[in-house]
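Message: A physicist's question: would you kindly supply an amino acid chain plus fold tokens?
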Amino acid sequence: MGLLSSLFGKNQSDENEQEKQDKKNFDILKYDGIRARNMGKLDYAIKCFEEAVALNDENETLGLLASAYLQANRTDDARITLDRLVAKDETNIQALLSLASVCFLQEDYDGMNNACQKAIAIDDKNAQAYYLAGKAAHGMKNGIQAIVMLTKALAQNESYTEAYLLRAEILWEMRQAKDALDDLEQVLKLNPEQEEALLLKATIHIQLGQTEEGEKCLDQVISLNPFHVKAYLLKGSLLTEEKKLDQALENYQEAIELIPQDAQLYQERGRVRLLMGDKDGATEDMKKAIELAPEKENLISGHFDNFEKNNLQTGIY
């Protein structure tokens, strides 16, 4: 009996010692991972979190690992980790919302919606859950459902600028211009420097024929962000349509000075030069556009060839 007691006691003692060592190793790996992440050493942080999770897949460390994967653009690994976390704890709202965001990156809108609906079932006052559900519905081409979800998000949080902006985008897709502009005004009240709201507002005004108001919005965007390519392109297109070719050319030249590596800016400046009769300048811009975006050579060349042909037919030259 004494011998058996000694043997079993030893085994139990060994197991206890191993548990203590595993816990110590887990703590070291977890907090080394956090320090590495904070220092920007992402690969080492991920390795630490992975080894920590192998010892103990507790929720916080799984969340840290998923977040690190996302920072490293390892979206599929983040999805697997969040699925694992949600399977362990189906009431973890933050994990469900993180999972929904990852599904959005993967364009898995069904999965995104499922995660959002589970979060809403747990907390029907969660504005972010409704907002993400709206994004999922929009991704599934269900505009009405998207508006319903975004409206519910705004009912929970009247200052939710992202929800106003997305609802405005969807309303404009439905060509509900007045309602879209109303939402954009709400965004700009909350944040007068919201560039995307100003850009969409400009687009709507231009489409409605209110070009002066549209140009004013574009000038605001460019003033806030002189590197906003879309704003220059839209302003240049507007000026070209209005036959203000000198101003359009000046707009593109200003943009190219600031953003010399954007192929589309050269392409559009070439289009204006062609309209102004500067065929050599247009050809030069076409070559530069192809040099910057060789994968779009056929598109750029076709654009210029068709444009030149149309100008000849209409007697511009």
Observations:
- The mean pLDDT is 90.
- The two ends are 111 Å apart (CA to CA).
